[in-house]
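Before surveying the methods themselves, it helps to consider a single example record, giving the amino acid sequence and backbone structure tokens:
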Amino acid sequence: METFHKLLATSAKAHGHLCPGQAVGVRMAMLGCRLIGLEEPTEHHQIKKLLVYVEMDRCAADAIAHVTGVKLGRRSLKFTDYGIMAATFVNVETGSAFRVLSTEEARDLVPLYAPGVGGKTGQQFEAYRRMPDSVLFRVQQVRVPVKDCDLPGPTRYKAICSRCGQVVRDRREVLVNGEVLCKPCAHGAYFKEAKEITWPEMNWTPDSTGVSHEPHGKLHLLHQVEVKDKRGMVPPHAEIPPH
């Protein structure tokens, strides 16, 4: 594995800025990989052996992904929205797994490890670089039951939502009173009032030429599509105001 300083520099560049969370994330990833015996996680011979579960969507998560090479699209990065500054590193080949947590005590000890450094952010960053792992982190050895539908690789399972007809992959369907549903139909979604639309130049492809750059004007709902919501079938409106 590269040195901390080199990993921090490349991680900050990929993330967009240098911050205390980057320092914590890089060190967390280095420790986690070392504990499970994968110290070259981005190399071909190790890349398929690693799963990482991150528990926060903060700067540290980007640093962990950068150092380990895990990605959502490769199914090696798992996001569990706990709001906790922690990540679990799993060696799929051996089953070894460790959860690494950033300590609150580390924040309290920042002035001790970086005396005389001006500014809250600058002082935190410098302290998190200097602290030993034993101060910055707690570590738990854990067992992570990994289902075959959660492993990297091609889609193994597909189901069709009986309400909206959407294909649901990787055992994410929900069974409600014997009915197979996608999660939005079963429990509601993060979005509201979904309406199918048409849009200007909707037949565009990467090989298209002569695409107009005039203002798009109004977007129109598809007249032939009916939209379901929690109240049942909802007739589409005529149009959506322009952005």
Summary: Residues 223-243 have pLDDT under 50 and may be disordered. The first helix runs from residue 4 to 15. The CA atoms of residues 7 and 67 lie 7 Å apart.
